[in-house]
Predict the 3D structure of the following.
Amino acid sequence: MVMPALDDASLSAIWLTLKLASITTVLLLLLGTPIAWWLARTRSRLKGPIGAVVALPLVLPPSVLGFYLLVAMGPNGPVGQLTQTLGLGVLPFTFAGLVVGSVFYSMPFVVQPLQNAFEAIGERPLEAAATLRAGPLDTFFTVVLPLARPGFVTASILGFAHTVGEFGVVLMIGGNIPEKTRVLSVQIYDHVEALEYAQAHWLAGGMLLFSFLVLLVLYASPLRQGWRG
């Protein structure tokens, strides 16, 4: 039975948010894994600058990141010109634009736990695999991935939860289009602006409970060993 306080607009925003967080988490795991592996293993001088770029969303105001992504993906921006040339149109104020912005904004919450997990493995398992003539890919999939499993679980939880709680970036890039770019945090903002505090309480309370459960899982279970940031 659906609670009366959750109207169609709120239900649509919840579904859109879950869809966005799921897609973003999968993309972040695919993109973040090689980045985290490189950061964990490299001795290059570029490790510091690249690590700083990955971690930038931790300290950069979401509105600033959202603004520059909006400019880059707009019709006159480099990304926007590329997508238009490819016949894809422009990304701002579309669900695809929300996904791109979410990937950038939640990147450190996936890369850093993975990097920590990779660094914690050490050299011995890799050396043992090398003595058995295992190739780099074989070593990664049969040795590294199983040992780094807690880091992957933690990265997935953090990436998903952080995307669910986005506001500034998604509002800047996606605007407030019902059933298209209006996510849960924006829906709460709309309810508050309209003085619909009862509806805002239902959604905000749900997000508060969700955030608490995420932190409870991370801090009260062995999964926290895979995350130090």
User: Anything to note?
Assistant: The chain has a mean pLDDT of 87.
